[in-house]
Amino acid sequence: MKTYLAHKTEDREQTLQEHLQRTAKLAGDFAAAFGKRSLGEFVGGFHDIGKASKEFQARIRNPNSTETCDHSTAGALEAVKMRQMTAAMCIMGHHSGLPDLGGQMDRDVDGTVQGRIKKGMEGKIPDYSGWKEACPSLSLPSVPE
Q: Which of 47, 50, 104, 130 has an alpha carbon within 20 to 30 A of 89's alpha carbon?
């Protein structure tokens, strides 16, 4: 099986599975304080599944790369498919803060929730389907409480 990386420094590599498992646990622990452990685990576990794309994996393995790669829309799109809009918004904003919801007229280039959903539904984000292979033992709530 191919090794999928989430983070890489000069002295350490963190696999995608390790990163998602640890983040899911940590986010679940934080969210337990307000009675939403499973939502926290869900968000933490899905937040970086876009890092399973060929584009992201090529970028992380090339220290001279200046390419950017949308990796947070992928997890948000999975949450939308499960009708988990709160989770989707949290995932979309895990680097930049909660995005505006936007509206149906938003375009795929708009940074709103609606715009990014369109971007994902139109196939304009890198193929992240390898995340299931990358994280075979990742167990997340299928629908958060």
A: 130
Range 62-86 average pLDDT: 88
Please tell me the predicted confidence (pLDDT) of residue 57: 94
**Virtual torsion, Cα 9, 132, 86, 93, nearest 10 deg:** 30
- Per DSSP, 14 falls in state E
Other residues' Cβ atoms within 10 Å of the Cβ of residue 26? 13
State the Cα–Cα distance between residues 137 and 127, nearest whole angstrom: 21
Q: Which one, of 131, 114, 121, lies nearest residue 140 by Cα?
A: 131
Please list, residue by residue across 47-68, b when 16 or more beta carbons sit within 10 angstroms of its beta carbon and e when fewer do: bbbbbbbebbbebbeeeeeeee
Q: Phi/psi of residue 12, each to 5°?
A: -155, 145
Q: What tokens does 22 get? A: 């640890």
